[in-house]
Automatic annotation (TrEMBL), chains A, B:
SUPFAM superfamilies: Actin-like ATPase domain (SSF53067), Winged helix' DNA-binding domain (SSF46785). InterPro entries: ATPase_NBD (IPR043129), ROK (IPR000600), WH-like_DNA-bd_sf (IPR036388), WH_DNA-bd_sf (IPR036390). This is Putative NBD/HSP70 family sugar kinase. One of its GO terms (molecular function) is kinase activity. Pfam families: ROK (PF00480). Coiled coil: none annotated. Keywords: Kinase, Transferase. Belongs to the ROK (NagC/XylR) family.
């Protein structure tokens, strides 16, 4: 319970609000900012001037509007001058990008990650990517921080990956290892891959404008980023959203977490490939192979997709009763399965979801695709700046 | 995205913050308020004066402190002068209370509710209780509003009960029916029974100080009020928290909702009584009978309690992975079962819950017991006042 803010706090809050607005929405006229932020014109002018001086935004006349009168100046984020490093550690690949303010990917690198790769072996190529890209960064730029998305449970305070069953890491000091390799990279923040992707789809993607969202990401495992009333459901230690380990089948298969019948044992990569008679394969290409075969009429592939679709609908139905969301987004390989199994998913979801809990729900695929994790990792770094633009 | 508040908004916010503080924490010295709310002494003095003039708080010298110097005045909510009507519609009973500011129950009434009772038959005794209690209300008092807790899914906007399977109501205009019976009672707000109980246990009960809480309430069905990062997980339409209809056993029994194997079919009253060989009984007394028999060594009762305990732990494990809560509170008949089945519950929860998700979890029984629903119903009415004390 806190009392109201001081005038100086209000000004700093307003600076952050304006910068966040153009960061998320892109170039915006002063007139629209006045309107959207509920501040008067002179306040918007003063805030914009401060942010311009700090090199965070720039102002310019808009393109010809065809209307009479002096046009409102357009404020845009300095995407090419203010940037973060964004890293993503996934089951099958390692990615790095330079992300400009406004969420623009300015440069990127990617390499395969063999399953079973250890932390130090993963950290090195990521650091090399950063060193490579750094060589191409113009002089007149400002580095804000580094964000890392990891397909696992991350303790934000110190960047320890507590558990990443699909990657095979337990209690690994990934943050410290990256800090050592990156040298002067300074501020480094780790987050969960599904969480950061969810926030990006929520702020500027498939769930823009929705306050209650479940973003599911599948590969070998299944994770979720959950937004309730506009905010991430993080939980006490930041480990919320582990829906892949919601047990849906008490009589099901053993899971990599040690439990049995977890949702990801029924809808993850292994389940799909096994149902399709392709248990010897693995990886995204193999999943896409089953989905393609199902679309071409292969009956075993269709069986596999139906089976997995049923279980997807089952778990989504449970989550719908718990969260009453507006949107459920299917990311990763769940996106591909959703596209061919939408009917099964919807039908099972309708059987389990209570009418009031599911009545306004929209099932969607991601708008930003796999870029969401990189943009989201960038957001982890920008967050400090957006909170207090002139200090951080 | 909103810009900062005006000075007048800050003052009103501060009035609400101070009033909410003493409403939740009871009598508090000006010195402590200064400290807790981060405002200076003269601001606290001015706010207290405004609230005193409005008849919402009173100030008095504290009891002898034994310390030298002028003691800080103590501010307390006007519990006996400012009140709401609080109603609770439950599976087996109807309750009404007059609740004073500060959450003090000043008067109360209760009657049985035969299962199958229709809306109009339930509304009438509640209205009579209010009329009765109203006759005893002193002159110099202020009525704030009426809050109603219902064991079902409620649309707050118009007070329609969308679905209350355990009560047997579907799309019933309970708010309108109550308004018609109560006559001049004015502002009326409905909420879900588990939701409002959760908020009270969170603000002043077993989960005070915890920001991530799951409050479970069981009788025939099972509902939850879920607090994430200090706020209720309401969902898009306000129907979140229907954990009783999370399917835990795909091969389980039919549920009153039309689905199969919902959590409440495994841990609700019917399951316990059936396992105990007492399928012909029903109600809370019958549940307590099984729990007592188990404590006295009756083997079939012990079997029943173990079975239900396993399934309680199972579902709690799922919720722990999804929410990473600090506290899980067992209310209603789940409280009684928890007290004899804590070992099973903990063991199954530990097997399903990921270590990071359950590492700081505390399992608890409610502090406010069944009063939570009445105090919580009162909160629905006080909420308007606390938001803007001098307007509402």
């Amino acid at each position: 319970m806190r009392a109201g803010p001081s005038q100086e706090e209000v000004r700093r809050h307003n600076l952050g609000t304006l910068l966040r607005y153009v960061h998320v929405h892109g170039a915006t006229s002063r007139a629209e900012l006045t309107n959207r932020l509920g501040l008067n014109r002179s306040t918007i002018g003063a805030l914009t001037a401060d942010l311009t001086t700090a090199g965070l935004v720039s102002e310019a006349a808009p393109r010809e509007t065809g209307r009479a009168g002096r046009p409102s100046l357009v404020v845009r984020p300095e995407s090419s001058r203010v940037y973060s490093w964004a890293l993503s550690i996934e089951v099958d690949r390692l990615r790095a990008a330079r992300v400009g303010l406004g969420g623009r990917i300015l440069d990127r690198r990617e390499t395969d990650r063999p399953r079973g790769m250890q932390v130090l072996d993963a950290v090195q190529p990521l650091a090399e990517f950063v060193h490579e890209m750094r060589a191409g960064v113009p002089d007149d730029t400002r580095y804000v921080g580094t964000g890392v998305a990891v397909a696992g449970m991350v303790r934000r305070a110190d960047g320890v990956v507590r558990l990443a069953p699909t990657i095979g890491w337990v209690e690994e000091p990934v943050g410290a290892a990256l800090r050592a390799e990156l040298g002067d990279a300074g501020r480094l923040t780790l987050g969960n891959h599904a969480d950061v992707s969810a926030l990006v789809e929520h702020s500027r993607g498939a769930a823009a404008g929705c306050d209650n969202v479940i973003y599911l990401y599948g590969d070998v495992g299944v994770g979720a980023g959950i937004i309730a009333d506009g905010r991430r459901v993080a939980g006490h230690g930041g480990y919320g959203g582990e829906v892949g380990h919601m047990v849906v089948n008490p009589y099901g298969r053993e899971c990599s977490c040690g439990s049995r019948g977890c949702w990801e044992t029924e809808i993850g990569e292994y389940a799909l490939l096994k149902h399709a008679g392709r248990g010897d394969q693995s990886g995204r290409e193999a999943v896409l192979g089953v989905v393609d075969a199902a679309m071409r009429g292969d009956s075993q592939a269709q069986f596999a997709v139906r089976q997995v679709g049923e279980w997807i609908g089952f778990g989504v139905g449970n989550l719908v009763n718990i969260f009453n969301p507006e949107a459920v987004i299917f990311g990763g390989t769940l996106r591909d399965v959703y596209l061919v199994a939408a009917a099964q998913i919807r039908s099972r979801l309708n059987a389990i979801g209570l009418p009031a809990c599911r009545e306004h729900i929209r099932l969607r695929t991601p708008e930003l695709g796999d870029d969401a994790a990189l943009i989201g990792a960038g957001e982890l770094a920008f967050e400090h700046l957006l909170k207090d633009p002139l200090i951080n």
